[in-house]
Amino acid sequence: MTKVMAKSKKHSVGQRAQEPGHHDHQAVPSDVALRVKALESLLVEKGIVDPAALDALVHTFERKVGPRNGARVVARAWTDPAYKKRLLTNASDAIAELGYTSGQGEHMVVLENAAKVHNMVVCTLCSCYPWPVLGLPPVWYKSAPYRSRAVIDPRGVLKEFEVEVQDDVEVRVWDSTAELRYLVLPERPAGTENMTEEQLAGLVTRDSMIGVAKATKPGGGGRT
Ligand code: FE
């Protein structure tokens, strides 16, 4: 059984660039990139923004905000039942407990995968994504085929990501919006009883927190 769990409402202001028909495969810098550069130059020249502040922002999103944050959230939930309960009840606050509070993630919901339930996340209209815990979205997440097919044929999409979901497992597809963003809590793999929280975090891939992969088995490879 497949359900689409939420309808898109408001999406981020940048959504137009991601809408179907938009073509972003260009060899030269895109119009948007050139305009951003022009604006940056102008703002710096007029003394309105400090280039060092811009560099610090870019550094944050390149180095500090990323799926390792989400992996720490998942590993904590796997090892601390009280934290897991808080995470499933009020995800935004529980995530903030670990210090992950930047923008594009103020209203979070965590979805728990289990033996008979598999959750996966999409943004059908654009690319809404929980930045504080997963960083910036991968290209495929923003692509039109993923955005449409995740809803029409989620099992087919999962198969392409090499995730086998048995027929008796319910697949739930959650449609992100700018107001509500999702993080999947993957199942803790078997054979990890003696692992530390830090070791467990190493098993939690970005894709497993979007719901297009399972957490990596200990000692095994697996998709990232
Ligand atoms: Fe969106």
> Structural class of the secondary elements?
alpha/beta
Radius of gyration: 19 Å
How are strands sequenced across the largest beta sheet?
1-4-3
Q: What's the number of extended β-strand segments?
A: 5
CATH architecture of the domain at 2-7 and 62-210: Alpha-Beta Complex
CATH C-level name of the domain at 2-7 and 62-210: Alpha Beta
Q: List low-pLDDT spans.
A: 13-25
How much of the residues is beta strand, in percent?
5-15%
Question: Going by CATH, what is the homologous superfamily of the domain at 2-7 and 62-210?
Answer: Nitrile hydratase alpha /Thiocyanate hydrolase gamma
Count of helices?
A: 11
Q: Strand-and-helix sequence, N→C?
A: EHHHHHEEHHHHEEHH
Shape: globular
The N- to C-terminal Cα distance equals: 27 Å
CATH topology of the domain at 2-7 and 62-210: Nitrile Hydratase, Chain A
Portion in helices: 40-55%
Major sheet details? 3 strands, parallel
Bound molecules: fe (iii) ion
What does the average pLDDT come to? 86
Description:
41% of the residues lie in helices and 11% in strands. With 224 residues, the protein is of the alpha/beta class. It has a domain at 2-7 and 62-210: Nitrile Hydratase, Chain A (Alpha-Beta Complex), CATH 3.90.330. Helix 4 packs across helix 5 (91-97) and helix 8 (144-152) crosses helix 9. It binds fe (iii) ion (FE). The site of fe (iii) ion (FE) has 9 residues, from loops.
